[in-house]
């Protein structure tokens, strides 16, 4: 039983440690980066929506910790985060 609990705890730590949605990675983002450059830092977005010539992408869950980046002409123009 102790091994099973320990295994679950270790797995939870590994999953959270691998998250690219972090304050450290957020600080690596710069205006003018392409979507590919942002994805090189954060990985693939969890959700993207196109509206009126802009692309808004979210990494993580908007109801929890997340990073949101808005692109115009494939260049990052705004960044925001919550819960980091």
Descriptive notes:
With 84 residues, the protein is α+β, with helices and mostly antiparallel strands. The protein has one domain (20-82): Beta-lactamase Inhibitory Protein, Chain:B, domain 1, CATH 3.30.1450.10. The chain is built from three helices and four strands, in the order αααββββ. A four-stranded antiparallel beta sheet has the order 1-2-3-4, covered by helices on one side. The longest helix has 16 residues, at 2-17. The radius of gyration is 16 Å and the shape is globular.
Structural class: alpha+beta
- Helical residue percent? 25-40%
Instruction: Tell me the β content.
Output: 25-35%
Corresponding CATH architecture: 2-Layer Sandwich
Mean pLDDT: 85
* Spans where pLDDT lies below 50 across 5 or more residues: 5-17
Protein name: DUF3862 domain-containing protein
Organism: Alteromonas pelagimontana
Signal peptide: 1-17
Keywords: Signal
Keywords for this structure?
four-stranded antiparallel sheet; 4 strands; 3 helices; Beta-lactamase Inhibitory Protein, Chain:B, domain 1; 33% helix; 32% strand
Give a brief outline of the structure:
The protein has a single domain, classed as Beta-lactamase Inhibitory Protein, Chain:B, domain 1 (2-Layer Sandwich), CATH 3.30.1450.10.
Write the layout of secondary structure elements.
Elements: H1 2-17, H2 23-26, H3 35-42, E1 47-51, E2 54-60, E3 66-72, E4 75-82
Antiparallel strand pairs: 1-2, 2-3, 3-4
Protein name: DUF3862 domain-containing protein
Keywords: Signal
Signal peptide: 1-17
């Amino acid at each position: 039983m102790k091994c099973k609990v320990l295994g679950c705890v270790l797995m939870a730590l590994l999953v959270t440690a691998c998250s690219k949605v972090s304050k450290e990675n957020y600080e690596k983002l710069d205006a003018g980066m392409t979507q590919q450059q942002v994805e090189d830092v954060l990985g693939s977005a969890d959700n993207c929506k196109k509206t009126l010539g802009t692309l808004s992408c979210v990494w993580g869950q908007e109801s929890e910790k997340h990073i949101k980046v808005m692109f115009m002409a494939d260049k990052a123009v705004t960044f925001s985060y919550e819960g980091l």
